[in-house]
Amino acid sequence: MIENNDFLGREVAAGGEERVFVVSVPLEFTTSYMKGAAEGPASILAASRQIELYNSGLDLDLEGAGITTIDPGVESREDLFSFLAANRERLASGFTCFLGGEHSITPWILEGMGYGEIGIVWLDAHADLRSEYQGDRESHACAARNSLPFGRIVEIGVRSFSREEKEFIGGEERVRVFSRFGRNALEAIDQLPDRVYLSLDFDGIDPSVIRAVGTPEPGGLMWPDLMDILDVIFATKTVVGMDAVELCPMAHDEASSFIAARAVYEAISRHLARAGKAGR
Ligand SMILES: [Mn+2]
Q1: Average pLDDT rounded to a whole number, residues 142-166
Q2: Which domains does the chain have, with CATH numbers?
Q3: Which residues pair with residue 96 across a beta bridge?
Q4: I want to staple 43 with a disulfide (CB 3.0 to 4.6 A). Which of 51, 96, 190, 257 is the partner?
Q5: Percent of the chain with pLDDT over 90
Q6: What's the gap in Å between 215 CA and the centre of ligand 1?
Q7: Helix (H, G, I), strand (E, B), or coil: what is residue 239?
Q8: Euclidean distance between the first and final Cα of the chain, in Å?
Q9: Ligand 1 centroid vs 280 CA: distance in angstroms?
């Protein structure tokens, strides 16, 4: 097997045609419980090479689909801004998935990419709406709060938040928070602008599906819920980009990395299916 650092392996490149970018952003400063989110991108990339390139659920072949994997070597927020400033047009020419790293990177990506008017679909166990956490306004626990300047947010899978966050949610029309994916969440997504950004915190998914996260919470989204959410947003909205964050790879838990990679693959597949550009 060829060892490389490419999402899904080299067979998904398409000789210069760049339709999808997978960008590693292994930044970790503030993760509160178990550390290791910085290892997320490498683990997802490695696991992704075990995924079947034919997406049987969508009848879609990703061989030659034009997926480019980039490791820009960012070691700080400033590095990320520099990278985005220099590569924004290239990344915006396709569909870009940023692999975290901790959730703090989301508002930085939104600022650096400058997507314009968007709504944000935020899958997470936690509301991430604190104004500060442990004295840090850039904490992962503040990531959604810091993303609000860039667009209204619909959060799904949320089952843990502080009293301060509950009060904030009650007085803030720009954010809607749901523990489960049902009719109300569906309506809230429908009310977002056409262009949406997806932020996937792997702890939004139930720990019985993905266990290797820094702060696991019971009662999360199941795999079919995630597929339904992806189906809805890619079918009814224009998804401008996404991130997938907070995987903390653990020894003896290959499954979490594989399933995280599969989640990213399913999102990218839906983009390609909608764009009608996969396969040959
Ligand atoms: Mn989060």
Answers
A1: 98
A2: 10-275 (3.40.800.10)
A3: 21, 241
A4: 257
A5: 90
A6: 9
A7: strand
A8: 24
A9: 37
